[in-house]
Amino acid sequence: MFGKIRQGLIKTRETFGKAVESIFKDKKEIKKSVDELEGTLILADIGLNTVQKLLKDIFKEEDPKQALKNRIKDILLGVQEVQNGNEKPYIHIFVGVNGVGKTTTIGKIAKKRKENGEKGIIAACDTFRAAASEQLEIWAERSGTEIVKQQEGADPAAVAFDAVSKAKAKGYDFCLIDTAGRLHTKHNLMEELQKISRVAGKALPGAPHQTTLVLDATTGQNGLNQAKEFVSKIKVTDLILTKLDGTAKGGIAVSIVDELRIPISYVGVGEKVDDLVPFDPKEYAEGLFD
Asked: Which of 77, 100, 124 is the last residue of a domain?
């Protein structure tokens, strides 16, 4: 498993890592170096507030480059990890806008759980997009996981209720709930997600046990804005960052965790099931540089 995150950061390292290395090697006056570092970090999609925190008195450190790495690690390690409990069935809702890889991510997690000897259900609650349901069916078949769906346009909360109820009745280990991802500014989508969460709790008291926001790393600061919108409306427990291998601006992970104080549980670094890997803050921080 070790090395996949570093490998996924190749594009970021080629731009960000080399630029940072050059600044630290160049013996310029401190203010000019700080200005250059600031610009480099912002170009890597680390937000201004986070950049200022990372660079405060950085050149007073004995080893500024190592200090920068350590500060990035401290931000990423400074949030509480999601503790998967022993609840059975474990109800896990996935939210996020269209196109972030949410449905594929659910399929990969279903397959991982199946490989661990667990049985479960996928709930196709995106009833507005026929393609989403079809995609989930393919993943359900691949992973040997049951799928609960209804006709296009059906009430998503009703699908969630049926799925959670069935998982409970059959003594399954998990229920993964896919949701619609229309534009994050749409008020009715947020209300729909809140309703799905409430209904899951009616079908099984204490549910949902986890609500994961899936973000596309290639969308940068726009992804952070999406995240803020979701977090303001629903209780998000953790984040999954997809397509980290497809961006040269992998610094967005630092900004998201720093501003939202929500941990990243997985990152996607490729198309295969094994390319959805548990997030390792230390490997990520090292992988940005060298």
From this structure: 77
Are 245 and 115 contained in the same domain?
yes
Give residues with Cβ within 8 angstroms of 195, minimum separation 6. 156, 157
Q: Report the distance separating Cα 133 and Cα 126, nearest Å.
A: 7
- Three-state SS letters, 47-92: CHHHHHHHHCCHHHCCCHHHHHHHHHHHHHHCCCCCCCCCCCCEEE
Q: Please identify which residue in the block is written with the tokens 């080399």.
A: 18
Beta 264-268 vs 276-278: how paired, if at all? antiparallel
On the question of a cis peptide bond just before residue 205, with omega within 30 degrees of 0, the verdict is no
What does the DSSP 8-state code read for residue 234? S
Please give the residue range of the domain that contains residue 10. Answer: 4-77
How far is residue 101 from each of residues 17, 181, 240, measured CA to CA in Å? 27, 10, 10
Please return the burial class of 230, using the count of CB atoms within 10 Å of its CB with bins 0-12, 13-18 and 19+: buried
289, part of any domain:
no
- Tens-of-pLDDT digits for all 290 residues of the chain? 458 999 999 999 999 989 998 998 876 777 888 999 999 999 999 999 999 999 999 999 999 999 999 999 999 999 988 877 789 999 999 999 988 999 999 999 999 999 999 999 999 999 988 788 898 999 999 889 999 999 888 999 999 999 999 999 999 999 999 999 876 556 688 899 999 999 999 999 999 999 999 999 999 888 898 899 899 999 999 999 999 999 988 899 999 999 999 999 999 999 899 999 999 999 999 999 87
- Domain count of the fold of the chain: 2
